[in-house]
Amino acid sequence: MVQLNASTLPSVNMARGVAPKTERVIQFGEGGFLRAFCDWMIDKANEVGMDAGVVIVQPIERGMIGMLNEQDGLYTQILRGQVDGEAMKDTRIIQCVKRGLSPYEDFEGYLALAHNKDMRFIISNTTEAGIVYTGKDQFDDKPQASFPGKLTRLLYERFTAFGGAKGTGFILLPCELIDYNGRNLKECCLKTADQWGLSSEFKAWIEEENVFTSTLVDRIVTGYPRGEAEAIWEELGYKDNMLNTAEPFGLWVIEGPAWIEDELPFKKAGCNVIFTQDVSPYKLRKVRMLNGAHTSMVLGAYLAGHEIVGDCMADPNTRKYMSDALFNEIMPTLDLPKDELEAFAAAIFERFSNPFNRHLLLSIALNSQSKFRARVLPTIKEYVKRKGELPKILTFSMAAFIAFYCGAKKEDGSFAGVRALGNEYPIVDDQFVLDFFAGMQGKSAAEIAKAVLENVQFWGEDLTAALPGFEASVAASLAEILADAKAAIAKVVG
Are 214 and 279 in contact (CB under 8 A)? Predict the structure, then answer.
């Protein structure tokens, strides 16, 4: 079986786009997400004339650049799942990646990227912890340890190479999962420039000639299919060590000046990209609808006997539970056009039903206290503000959260609960949360509900006072869930 690379590509019978001629994108990160998301979109955009080759910079000392270069930047991207109720699978060889580069092995080659006048875009995904000003990077480090340090050094190289001329800046598209990632990244670079004593002219060039967009990215990437790889190679007819899998759904929201859309022909290529002056409504939609649906559903569903999200979607009561929460309680608290919200909700159902995404409920349940506070509680409060009454499903979900956390401390110091099926399950959260619930043993449902809801450390306020009737409703549902979670869910959606 042949190995996928430039020499074997002509013999491979697989869909592919247009190979770019010009290196125009510097990408920090070679992981599965960027390759399934940004590079897939760039590859599609090259079919409509973008001509953007990607140079991937390895942001940490150890990574997969060597393996990627062995395949000349080529890899197979498989999207699989459901679209409009139908099974969907799309397989293509991504050709936009020209090469990979490690600044730890070739720092001069890294700086040389700044001298290429064709370079126009910088993309990154260095994890949520990547966009942080540490104050430890030095100008003469080869390379700097942090991503903002590496980036500031590259920007300074660009500034000096072209004398700070107009039109020589970059469009930066950070994909790290933090609020206003572009604004935060620019702030880190300016702080680094101050630390290094770089000129005011350079800092003005950063501000005036570079566009730090803030973005929202959304695609579940399942990565390298370890248990299936060899079978997939047999099906493809070639070996691919960089094989990557993901769901069909993908959304990129890019906040920046309107003219950016002219340089990034993603929409022309059929990609689901939104260019906007304000990313915040779309972030709110994602947090409240996608993340909120997860958090409000999974704890009760697990207690009722389910293991993965797909199981929940196959169960009529749990599916109706999520449908009622999304359409009747979450969507009325959002101000985007109704048709956009309904389309996003429909996509959520298809994503949750995707048989290739075996998302464990217990994985989603990690650190649910902070998740509930950020993802569900604001919706409950906004619903009450707009409707003058409590949302039935989301109020029930608070009771489900409490029931899931009604566990006990074990001899080894861990915390665990026991569900109706008889199995013990781990409860993982901050220590102050676990210590609080350990003190709830032996108390009645009403006592526990009251103690949880008036815990200001949990919610930032006393919810028994802030939400009239909330305590009584949560206490009643908590008693029902503790008695029989499956029957309680059937009752609340009945």
Answer: yes
CATH code, domain with 411: 1.10.1040.10
Is the confidence at residue 129, as pLDDT, over 90?
Answer: no
3-state secondary structure of 381: helix
Q: Where are the beta strands (DSSP E) in 403-465?
A: 408-409, 415-418, 424-426
Number of Cα atoms under 13 Å in the Cβ half of residue 439: 9
pLDDT of residue 412: 86
Residue with tokens 């991207």: 77
State the Cα–Cα distance between residues 474 and 494, nearest whole angstrom: 18
- Answer yes or no: do 253 and 301 share one domain: no
Q: What does the alpha-carbon distance between residue 119 and residue 89 come to, in Å, rounded to a whole number?
A: 33
Q: Quick: pLDDT tens for 332-357.
A: 999 999 999 999 999 999 999 999 98
Could you tell me how far CA 118 lies from the centroid of its own chain?
Answer: 30
272 & 304 share domain = no
Give bridge partners of residue 26 from the DSSP assignment: 55, 122
**Tens-digit pLDDT profile for residues 87-119:** 999 999 999 999 999 999 999 999 999 999 999
